[in-house]
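re: the backbone from monday

yeah here it is again, tokenized this time
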């Protein structure tokens, strides 16, 4: 394998399926199945799931008359729901899994403890990091970059819905948009490419963690990346 320890970032929208909001079991099972195959190869896998399928920070909080901090906390709770749904799917496939939350909720998740998370990974357990960073004003992209740095992940995989990498423009709107196979962290920041927020990108740059953006709907995407195949877009 090209990478031994990976952090997989999944957007909350990936769990929507055909629904307008909430959690659809079909994409959850598909994601769990892909994680299982990668684990069986011997990879150590940590996961961060967004919460946009249930609650999207600033947009939803403005509608409800909330301040941004309150809206962000609600969004963190949404990521915990997604993490538990994914954990359940993994357990049904006999994949040992632990959820660690940045916000204390001992009845349903372990507290986030760096050394414990690393120990779980070393024992072959999948670890799902929930509740973002535990602080408002930070996205789950930043949480993913932070956790990847803390656990010494060798790469961060960003799973996108229906987009197989980074393009010069939105390929769903502009058919002339060109796919970029290799770009730098500075390209993301300088050109404002909507792949991740700049704080997450800067954190990966600082800690020399390459990022691979790929289409999660493509079968065996994670396995292909682990085998060193050039799929998606590589950022480093």
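seq for it, each position gets an aa:
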């Amino acid at each position: 394998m090209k990478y031994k320890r990976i952090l997989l970032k999944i957007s909350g929208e990936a769990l929507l399926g055909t629904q307008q909001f909430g959690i659809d079991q079909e994409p959850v099972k598909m994601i769990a199945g892909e994680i299982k195959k990668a684990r069986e190869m011997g990879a150590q896998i940590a996961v961060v799931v967004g919460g946009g399928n249930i609650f999207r920070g600033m947009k939803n909080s403005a509608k409800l008359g909330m301040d941004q901090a309150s809206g962000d906390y609600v969004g963190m709770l949404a990521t915990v729901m997604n993490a538990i749904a994914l954990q359940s799917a993994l357990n049904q496939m006999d994949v040992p899994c632990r959820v660690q939350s940045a916000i204390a909720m001992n009845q349903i998740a372990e507290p986030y403890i760096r050394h414990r998370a690393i120990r779980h990974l070393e024992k072959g357990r999948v670890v799902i990091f929930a509740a973002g960073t535990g602080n408002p004003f930070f996205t789950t992209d930043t949480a993913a970059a932070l956790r990847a740095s803390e656990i010494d992940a060798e790469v961060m995989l960003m799973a996108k819905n229906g987009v197989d990498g980074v393009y010069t423009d939105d390929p769903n709107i502009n058919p002339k948009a060109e796919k970029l196979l290799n770009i730098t962290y500075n390209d993301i920041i300088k050109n404002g490419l909507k792949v991740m927020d700049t704080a997450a990108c800067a954190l990966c740059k600082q800690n020399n963690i390459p990022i691979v953006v790929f289409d999660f709907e493509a079968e065996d995407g994670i396995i292909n990346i682990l085998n060193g195949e050039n799929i998606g877009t590589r950022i480093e």
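Helices lie at 25-40, 57-63, 68-92, 114-122, 140-150, 185-191, 198-206, 221-226. Residues 132 and 200 are 12 Å apart (CA to CA).
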